[in-house]
Write a structure and sequence with these properties.
331 residues, disordered N terminus, 13 helices, single chain, mainly alpha, 0% strand
Length: 331
Protein backbone atom coordinates (compact mmCIF):
# COMPACT_ATOMS: atom_id res chain seq x y z
CA UNK A 1 0.00 0.00 0.00
CA UNK A 2 1.58 3.29 -1.10
CA UNK A 3 2.18 6.21 1.21
CA UNK A 4 -0.06 9.18 0.59
CA UNK A 5 1.92 12.24 -0.45
CA UNK A 6 1.31 15.31 1.73
CA UNK A 7 0.78 18.46 -0.32
CA UNK A 8 1.06 21.98 1.08
CA UNK A 9 -2.24 23.83 0.51
CA UNK A 10 -1.97 26.40 -2.26
CA UNK A 11 -3.22 29.23 -0.08
CA UNK A 12 -0.08 29.06 2.08
CA UNK A 13 2.50 28.13 -0.57
CA UNK A 14 3.27 31.72 -1.62
CA UNK A 15 3.79 33.06 1.94
CA UNK A 16 6.06 30.09 2.65
CA UNK A 17 8.05 30.84 -0.49
CA UNK A 18 8.42 34.48 0.56
CA UNK A 19 9.43 33.49 4.10
CA UNK A 20 12.00 31.08 2.69
CA UNK A 21 13.45 33.79 0.47
CA UNK A 22 13.77 36.13 3.47
CA UNK A 23 15.52 33.40 5.47
CA UNK A 24 18.03 32.71 2.68
CA UNK A 25 18.63 36.44 2.26
CA UNK A 26 19.29 36.87 5.99
CA UNK A 27 21.90 34.10 5.89
CA UNK A 28 23.70 35.77 3.00
CA UNK A 29 23.65 39.20 4.64
CA UNK A 30 26.00 38.07 7.40
CA UNK A 31 28.71 37.28 4.86
CA UNK A 32 27.83 39.55 1.96
CA UNK A 33 30.15 40.48 -0.89
CA UNK A 34 30.54 44.25 -0.71
CA UNK A 35 31.99 44.44 -4.23
CA UNK A 36 28.38 44.24 -5.41
CA UNK A 37 27.77 47.79 -4.23
CA UNK A 38 27.63 50.50 -6.85
CA UNK A 39 30.31 53.17 -7.16
CA UNK A 40 28.53 56.20 -8.56
CA UNK A 41 30.41 59.16 -10.08
CA UNK A 42 30.77 62.00 -7.59
CA UNK A 43 28.72 64.25 -9.88
CA UNK A 44 25.74 61.95 -9.33
CA UNK A 45 26.55 60.97 -5.77
CA UNK A 46 26.66 64.61 -4.64
CA UNK A 47 23.81 65.91 -6.80
CA UNK A 48 20.46 66.41 -5.09
CA UNK A 49 18.59 66.34 -8.40
CA UNK A 50 20.26 63.11 -9.50
CA UNK A 51 19.55 61.61 -6.09
CA UNK A 52 15.87 62.52 -6.29
CA UNK A 53 15.60 61.05 -9.80
CA UNK A 54 17.25 57.79 -8.68
CA UNK A 55 15.08 57.62 -5.56
CA UNK A 56 11.94 58.18 -7.64
CA UNK A 57 12.91 55.34 -9.97
CA UNK A 58 13.56 53.07 -6.98
CA UNK A 59 10.10 53.76 -5.56
CA UNK A 60 8.42 53.26 -8.93
CA UNK A 61 10.09 49.84 -9.08
CA UNK A 62 9.03 49.14 -5.46
CA UNK A 63 5.40 50.01 -6.21
CA UNK A 64 5.55 47.90 -9.38
CA UNK A 65 6.87 44.97 -7.33
CA UNK A 66 4.04 45.44 -4.83
CA UNK A 67 1.45 45.45 -7.62
CA UNK A 68 2.99 42.38 -9.29
CA UNK A 69 2.86 40.61 -5.91
CA UNK A 70 -0.80 41.51 -5.37
CA UNK A 71 -2.02 40.32 -8.77
CA UNK A 72 -0.18 37.01 -8.38
CA UNK A 73 -1.41 36.21 -4.88
CA UNK A 74 -4.28 33.83 -4.16
CA UNK A 75 -7.62 35.47 -3.21
CA UNK A 76 -6.58 36.55 0.28
CA UNK A 77 -8.28 39.29 2.26
CA UNK A 78 -7.12 42.71 0.96
CA UNK A 79 -5.27 43.46 4.21
CA UNK A 80 -3.22 40.27 3.83
CA UNK A 81 -2.42 41.19 0.24
CA UNK A 82 -1.37 44.69 1.31
CA UNK A 83 0.95 43.26 3.96
CA UNK A 84 2.70 40.84 1.58
CA UNK A 85 2.97 43.50 -1.15
CA UNK A 86 4.27 45.97 1.43
CA UNK A 87 7.05 43.57 2.37
CA UNK A 88 7.87 42.93 -1.31
CA UNK A 89 8.21 46.69 -1.91
CA UNK A 90 10.40 46.98 1.19
CA UNK A 91 12.74 44.28 -0.12
CA UNK A 92 13.12 46.16 -3.40
CA UNK A 93 14.03 49.35 -1.54
CA UNK A 94 16.40 47.40 0.69
CA UNK A 95 18.23 45.96 -2.32
CA UNK A 96 18.90 49.48 -3.57
CA UNK A 97 19.85 50.62 -0.07
CA UNK A 98 22.52 47.95 -0.12
CA UNK A 99 23.66 48.60 -3.69
CA UNK A 100 24.04 52.31 -2.93
CA UNK A 101 25.44 51.60 0.54
CA UNK A 102 22.85 53.97 2.01
CA UNK A 103 19.95 52.83 4.20
CA UNK A 104 18.40 56.28 3.89
CA UNK A 105 16.90 55.05 0.62
CA UNK A 106 14.16 53.74 2.88
CA UNK A 107 13.40 57.11 4.50
CA UNK A 108 10.56 58.15 2.12
CA UNK A 109 8.80 54.80 2.56
CA UNK A 110 7.06 55.83 5.80
CA UNK A 111 5.54 58.87 4.12
CA UNK A 112 4.59 57.20 0.83
CA UNK A 113 2.92 54.08 2.22
CA UNK A 114 -0.39 55.52 3.55
CA UNK A 115 -1.25 57.13 0.21
CA UNK A 116 -0.39 54.02 -1.82
CA UNK A 117 -2.32 51.72 0.54
CA UNK A 118 -5.32 54.06 0.54
CA UNK A 119 -5.25 54.23 -3.25
CA UNK A 120 -5.26 50.43 -3.50
CA UNK A 121 -8.24 50.17 -1.12
CA UNK A 122 -10.03 52.78 -3.22
CA UNK A 123 -9.22 50.73 -6.35
CA UNK A 124 -11.00 47.72 -4.81
CA UNK A 125 -14.25 49.62 -4.30
CA UNK A 126 -17.10 49.53 -6.82
CA UNK A 127 -16.85 52.00 -9.68
CA UNK A 128 -18.13 55.50 -8.86
CA UNK A 129 -18.33 54.54 -5.17
CA UNK A 130 -16.88 57.25 -2.97
CA UNK A 131 -19.00 58.13 0.07
CA UNK A 132 -17.80 61.15 2.11
CA UNK A 133 -15.81 59.14 4.65
CA UNK A 134 -13.95 57.22 1.93
CA UNK A 135 -13.03 60.38 0.07
CA UNK A 136 -11.98 62.15 3.26
CA UNK A 137 -9.66 59.34 4.41
CA UNK A 138 -8.14 59.08 0.93
CA UNK A 139 -7.54 62.84 0.97
CA UNK A 140 -6.02 62.76 4.46
CA UNK A 141 -3.66 59.94 3.46
CA UNK A 142 -2.47 61.93 0.43
CA UNK A 143 -2.17 65.15 2.44
CA UNK A 144 -0.01 63.32 5.00
CA UNK A 145 2.15 61.78 2.24
CA UNK A 146 2.63 65.09 0.43
CA UNK A 147 3.52 66.95 3.63
CA UNK A 148 6.05 64.41 4.90
CA UNK A 149 7.59 63.59 1.52
CA UNK A 150 8.13 67.24 0.57
CA UNK A 151 9.65 67.87 4.00
CA UNK A 152 12.10 65.02 3.38
CA UNK A 153 12.88 66.30 -0.14
CA UNK A 154 13.67 69.81 1.09
CA UNK A 155 16.16 68.64 3.70
CA UNK A 156 17.75 65.70 1.91
CA UNK A 157 21.01 66.78 0.20
CA UNK A 158 21.55 63.72 -1.99
CA UNK A 159 22.83 60.15 -2.12
CA UNK A 160 25.97 61.06 -0.18
CA UNK A 161 23.87 61.69 2.93
CA UNK A 162 22.85 58.93 5.31
CA UNK A 163 20.89 59.38 8.54
CA UNK A 164 23.28 59.62 11.49
CA UNK A 165 21.43 56.82 13.27
CA UNK A 166 22.18 54.43 10.42
CA UNK A 167 25.83 55.49 10.39
CA UNK A 168 26.04 54.70 14.09
CA UNK A 169 24.39 51.31 13.61
CA UNK A 170 26.82 50.54 10.80
CA UNK A 171 29.78 51.33 13.06
CA UNK A 172 28.35 49.25 15.89
CA UNK A 173 27.37 46.14 13.93
CA UNK A 174 30.17 45.62 11.40
CA UNK A 175 29.49 42.77 8.98
CA UNK A 176 26.08 42.19 10.55
CA UNK A 177 24.95 45.73 9.68
CA UNK A 178 22.98 44.82 6.55
CA UNK A 179 21.05 42.20 8.47
CA UNK A 180 20.31 44.85 11.10
CA UNK A 181 19.37 47.27 8.33
CA UNK A 182 16.96 44.79 6.76
CA UNK A 183 15.26 43.94 10.04
CA UNK A 184 15.44 47.21 11.96
CA UNK A 185 15.64 50.03 9.40
CA UNK A 186 13.49 48.51 6.66
CA UNK A 187 11.10 45.74 7.78
CA UNK A 188 10.33 47.01 11.29
CA UNK A 189 9.08 50.47 10.18
CA UNK A 190 7.20 48.80 7.32
CA UNK A 191 5.28 46.70 9.83
CA UNK A 192 4.68 49.80 11.98
CA UNK A 193 3.15 51.80 9.12
CA UNK A 194 1.14 48.78 7.99
CA UNK A 195 -0.36 48.38 11.46
CA UNK A 196 -0.93 52.12 11.74
CA UNK A 197 -2.74 52.12 8.41
CA UNK A 198 -5.10 49.23 9.21
CA UNK A 199 -7.95 51.60 10.20
CA UNK A 200 -8.02 52.95 6.65
CA UNK A 201 -9.66 49.74 5.41
CA UNK A 202 -12.90 49.91 7.43
CA UNK A 203 -12.93 53.69 7.06
CA UNK A 204 -12.88 53.43 3.26
CA UNK A 205 -14.37 50.02 2.40
CA UNK A 206 -17.13 50.02 5.01
CA UNK A 207 -18.00 53.69 4.92
CA UNK A 208 -21.64 53.68 3.78
CA UNK A 209 -23.13 54.93 7.05
CA UNK A 210 -23.44 58.74 7.41
CA UNK A 211 -20.78 60.88 9.05
CA UNK A 212 -21.33 61.60 12.74
CA UNK A 213 -19.49 63.08 15.71
CA UNK A 214 -16.73 60.43 15.89
CA UNK A 215 -15.84 61.20 12.29
CA UNK A 216 -15.49 64.89 13.03
CA UNK A 217 -13.33 64.20 16.09
CA UNK A 218 -11.06 61.85 14.09
CA UNK A 219 -10.85 64.20 11.09
CA UNK A 220 -10.02 67.14 13.36
CA UNK A 221 -7.26 65.20 15.15
CA UNK A 222 -5.78 63.94 11.87
CA UNK A 223 -5.79 67.38 10.26
CA UNK A 224 -4.38 68.96 13.42
CA UNK A 225 -1.59 66.35 13.43
CA UNK A 226 -0.60 67.11 9.82
CA UNK A 227 -0.67 70.87 10.44
CA UNK A 228 1.30 70.53 13.70
CA UNK A 229 4.04 68.54 11.94
CA UNK A 230 4.20 71.12 9.16
CA UNK A 231 4.43 74.07 11.57
CA UNK A 232 7.00 72.36 13.82
CA UNK A 233 9.21 71.41 10.88
CA UNK A 234 9.01 74.90 9.36
CA UNK A 235 9.86 76.53 12.69
CA UNK A 236 12.87 74.26 13.16
CA UNK A 237 14.01 74.83 9.56
CA UNK A 238 13.88 78.61 10.05
CA UNK A 239 15.80 78.34 13.33
CA UNK A 240 18.56 76.21 11.81
CA UNK A 241 19.30 78.82 9.15
CA UNK A 242 20.71 81.24 11.75
CA UNK A 243 21.43 79.10 14.80
CA UNK A 244 24.70 79.23 16.68
CA UNK A 245 26.73 76.17 17.64
CA UNK A 246 25.17 74.33 20.60
CA UNK A 247 22.01 76.44 20.55
CA UNK A 248 18.64 74.79 21.27
CA UNK A 249 15.31 75.95 19.85
CA UNK A 250 12.53 76.36 22.40
CA UNK A 251 10.12 78.64 20.56
CA UNK A 252 6.82 78.09 18.78
CA UNK A 253 5.48 74.55 19.05
CA UNK A 254 8.83 73.50 20.53
CA UNK A 255 8.10 75.30 23.82
CA UNK A 256 5.24 72.86 24.48
CA UNK A 257 7.15 69.69 23.58
CA UNK A 258 10.77 68.89 22.83
CA UNK A 259 9.53 66.79 19.91
CA UNK A 260 6.25 68.27 18.62
CA UNK A 261 6.77 66.60 15.23
CA UNK A 262 6.62 63.22 16.99
CA UNK A 263 3.44 64.33 18.75
CA UNK A 264 1.87 65.18 15.41
CA UNK A 265 3.04 61.93 13.84
CA UNK A 266 1.48 59.92 16.68
CA UNK A 267 -1.81 61.83 16.58
CA UNK A 268 -2.18 61.20 12.84
CA UNK A 269 -2.50 57.44 13.36
CA UNK A 270 -4.84 57.89 16.34
CA UNK A 271 -7.07 60.14 14.24
CA UNK A 272 -7.35 57.44 11.55
CA UNK A 273 -8.35 54.93 14.21
CA UNK A 274 -11.13 57.16 15.54
CA UNK A 275 -12.52 57.60 12.01
CA UNK A 276 -12.54 53.80 11.63
CA UNK A 277 -14.64 53.50 14.80
CA UNK A 278 -17.27 55.67 13.16
CA UNK A 279 -17.23 53.44 10.04
CA UNK A 280 -17.32 50.08 11.79
CA UNK A 281 -16.74 49.79 15.57
CA UNK A 282 -16.20 46.01 15.34
CA UNK A 283 -12.73 46.76 13.93
CA UNK A 284 -11.68 48.66 17.05
CA UNK A 285 -9.31 46.02 18.41
CA UNK A 286 -7.43 45.45 15.14
CA UNK A 287 -7.18 49.13 14.28
CA UNK A 288 -5.96 49.96 17.79
CA UNK A 289 -2.79 47.85 17.49
CA UNK A 290 -0.98 50.26 15.15
CA UNK A 291 -1.51 53.56 17.01
CA UNK A 292 -0.54 51.94 20.31
CA UNK A 293 2.67 50.40 18.91
CA UNK A 294 3.61 53.64 17.11
CA UNK A 295 3.11 55.57 20.36
CA UNK A 296 5.34 53.06 22.18
CA UNK A 297 7.92 53.30 19.38
CA UNK A 298 8.26 57.05 19.89
CA UNK A 299 7.98 56.85 23.68
CA UNK A 300 10.64 54.23 24.28
CA UNK A 301 12.90 54.35 21.18
CA UNK A 302 12.74 57.51 19.05
CA UNK A 303 12.38 60.14 21.78
CA UNK A 304 15.06 58.66 24.13
CA UNK A 305 17.41 58.23 21.14
CA UNK A 306 16.98 61.86 20.08
CA UNK A 307 17.32 63.05 23.68
CA UNK A 308 20.64 61.23 24.03
CA UNK A 309 21.85 62.69 20.72
CA UNK A 310 20.86 66.24 21.76
CA UNK A 311 22.67 65.95 25.08
CA UNK A 312 25.82 64.70 23.32
CA UNK A 313 25.86 67.62 20.87
CA UNK A 314 24.61 70.41 23.16
CA UNK A 315 25.94 70.45 26.74
CA UNK A 316 23.29 72.94 27.85
CA UNK A 317 20.39 71.01 26.29
CA UNK A 318 18.97 69.66 29.56
CA UNK A 319 19.07 73.07 31.24
CA UNK A 320 17.64 74.91 28.23
CA UNK A 321 14.71 72.50 27.85
CA UNK A 322 14.00 72.16 31.56
CA UNK A 323 10.26 72.25 32.14
CA UNK A 324 9.44 71.32 28.51
CA UNK A 325 7.87 67.85 28.21
CA UNK A 326 9.89 65.36 26.21
CA UNK A 327 6.91 64.08 24.26
CA UNK A 328 3.24 64.90 24.87
CA UNK A 329 2.67 68.29 26.56
CA UNK A 330 0.77 66.86 29.51
CA UNK A 331 3.75 64.77 30.64
Amino acid sequence: MGTRKRVTPKFIQRPLQIAGAFFCLSLKLTNINFTMQLALPSSIHNSKLAGLVITTIIYILAIAAAWYTIINLPPYHPLIKILIADIAATIVVFIFSYLLNNSSMYDPFWSVYPAVAALYIFYLLPENYCPPRTCIVLGLAFLYAIRLTTNWMRDWPGLHHQDWRYVRLQEQNGKFYWLVSLAGIHLFPTIMTYLGGLPMYPSMAEASNPLYYLDYIGITITLFAIILCFIADEQMRTFRKNKKAGETFTGGAWKYSRHPNYVGETLFWWGLWIISLAANPTWWWLGLIGPVIIYLLFEFISVPYMETRSKERRPNYEQTTKGIPKYFPWR
